[in-house]
Amino acid sequence: QVQLVESGGGSVQPGGSLRLSCAASGFAGSTFMYYDMSWYLQAPGKERELVARIYSDGTITNYPDSVKGRFTISRDNAKNTVYLQMNSLKPEDTAVYYCYAQNKYYSSITYWGQGTQVTVSS
């Protein structure tokens, strides 16, 4: 059974940094490498939105303007883990951050993590 477990969230002051991790388990063999991985955020009262996606070949989608230059997605296939480095955090970054996996060959095979709360406040 595939599981995505996010960690690294918490409370931080504006201008601070956090590094989110998403550890994937239950993938047979080295199949994690065949999944495109994404981070989404969902702010209170708003819809879930894409923050960043890193494809199985390492290609990264353009970040939305709201996080461009501040957030960086990366992955370590040997550790079945995807990361989101968040710098210069702003109060508007406050949200629950979710990890998402999509099979590159079978797009209907997808998984979500349970989310991790990030709160940016002075």
Topology:
Layout: E1 3-7, E2 10-12, E3 18-25, E4 35-42, E5 49-54, E6 71-76, E7 81-86, E8 95-103, E9 110-112, E10 116-120
Parallel strand pairs: 2-10
Antiparallel strand pairs: 1-3, 3-7, 4-5, 4-8, 6-7, 8-9, 8-10
Provide tags for this entry.
globular; 10 strands; mainly beta
Number of E-state strands? 10
What is the overall pLDDT average?
95
Shape: globular
Number of H- or I-type helical stretches: 0
Note down, in words, how this protein is organized.
- There is one protein chain.
- With about 120 residues, the chain is mainly β.
- It is globular, with a radius of gyration of 14 Å.
- Helices cover about 0% and strands about 50% of the residues.
- A hairpin with a 4-residue loop joins strand 6 and strand 7 (about 80-85).
- The termini are far apart.
- It contains no helices and ten strands.
- Strands 2, 4, 5, 8, 9 and 10 form a six-stranded mixed β-sheet that branches. Strands 1-3-7-6 form a four-stranded antiparallel β-sheet, with no helix packed on it.
- The model has no long low-confidence stretch (mean pLDDT about 95).
